Amino acid sequence: MADPDQHPRVVIGVDIGTTSTKSVAYDTDGRQLASHSVGYPLDEPQPGYAEQDPLLIFDAVVETVRAVVTELPGPVAGLSFSTAMHSLIGLDPDGQPLTPSVTWADSRASRQAERLRAARSGLALHRRTGTPVHPMAPLPKLVWFAEQEPKLFEQVAHWVGIKDYVLLRLCEALVTDHSVASASGLMDIQTRAWDAEALRIAGITEEQLPQLVATTTVLPGLTAEYAAATGLPADTPIVVGAGDGPLANLGLGAVRPGVVACSIGTSGAMRVMVERPAVDPLGGVFCYALTEDRWVVGGAINNGGIVLQWAGDALAPELGEDSEEELLALAARAPVGSGGLIMLPYLLSERAPHWSALPRGAYVGLTHGHRREHLVRAALEGVCQQLALVLASVRSAGNEVREVRASGGFARSPLWRQLLADALGLPVRFPAGHEGSSFGAALLGMQALGLIASVDVAADLVRIDETVRPDPAAAATYAALLPLHAELYDALVPTFTSLRRLAPSLPPEPPPTAPPM
């Protein structure tokens, strides 16, 4: 009998993101052995559009895997995939793309989403599928294609996500995993089957969608062409993998009930792992699958670090590019609560917990005494308060929250770190350097291939670098202000609606300073 120690124990996690694909090789002790990343553009040909070329993304996957394989001294046990969620691509009968990859950031289906959400069945659809009825999701996008591009819609043989397309080309298997499908608005999260009512609304059939499989499904291997292109043996096991959000929980070690994963990059998100699928009564959170007995409940926000970037461009342009440290120092001069100034940070509309493309940003409470430092700090506080609203929705779904683990570009700033702990009213733990979703993908692959007993080992493999505890006085101030943030959203919905109605008659709004990520 062969010595199991001689078997390859390295898995490559392939993370297909919105701005780049990154492949990273890990061993079963969680050590990173090699990595490579390739970027690609996010195209915005019209206002509200955010799409990508699936051919470029596929080429990036092949290139990054090949580069990592070249750096490794020994064989690879398998590949395992992570992907940005909510993408949609229409394929012809030969598997060739008829559409770009329409990303989560695309808002062209805003009116379709609002119509579906306002319908009597809207909340029931959200709670049944786990996916908010929002323009980010494939369901409203399909309705948009049916209504706005009917000839193209009729030509599409299969509707897939970007990872489904990559696996189809690599392995000639038309499959989608339960995690990605649970973020489509088309799958019943209780039965793990395509939802008949959702398919009827979308105007498609089950035959037009990939086969549903578990995230730990192992495909038999690569085609001869792409085995040669990647430098891997053709029989290399390919683990289907999952969505990047649930896998980021693994990457942070947030795999046990009560441990929340929070990330703030350009956008932001908050997720807790649970053992049974559930959505809160008001539909403030999503519920996406990871494995057969692990789900994540949470919410994503559109406006994270992009708000600080906007503050630099709009409020302190003389600081120039790379002014983050100066802006944060400016914000630190203002008091907790920004002297009664509140910012709703909806520069790129918003997702959780309201799940609407309507809202715009707003400052409320502005007085003659406020200065730039108050405006900048209020913007940062607004982001953290929005995450606190998401946390409240997570709790409303019946989830205990006792620990927060955070990551993202904001974590470099002591002010951001303290603001988050104060706004959440909880200690926030910051893991040592990690690769998030690619590490999660690799861990899931190791479980699927029998190299580890369970993804639960993530909790022990991720080392905590620092714990930031809330300041009691600051936390009390933010807790008192939080209901005002929620009330302001509700109060301004009629204004947001009127602004959109008037928009065609007004001068065009300026483009965003950077595309959402």
UniProtKB/TrEMBL annotation:
All residue ranges annotated as the Carbohydrate kinase FGGY C-terminal domain in the record: 261-448
Q: Which residues form the Carbohydrate kinase FGGY N-terminal domain?
A: 11-251
Q: Answer yes or no on keyword Transferase.
A: yes
Biological process (GO) annotations held by this record are: carbohydrate metabolic process
Which ranges of the sequence are coiled-coil?
none
Sample GO molecular function, one term: kinase activity
Record key words, sorted: Kinase, Transferase
Signal peptide (residue range): none
- PROSITE patterns per record: FGGY_KINASES_1, FGGY_KINASES_2
Q: Which PANTHER family match?
A: GLUCONOKINASE (PTHR43095:SF2), SUGAR KINASE (PTHR43095)
Family affiliation: Belongs to the FGGY kinase family.
Entry protein name: Carbohydrate kinase
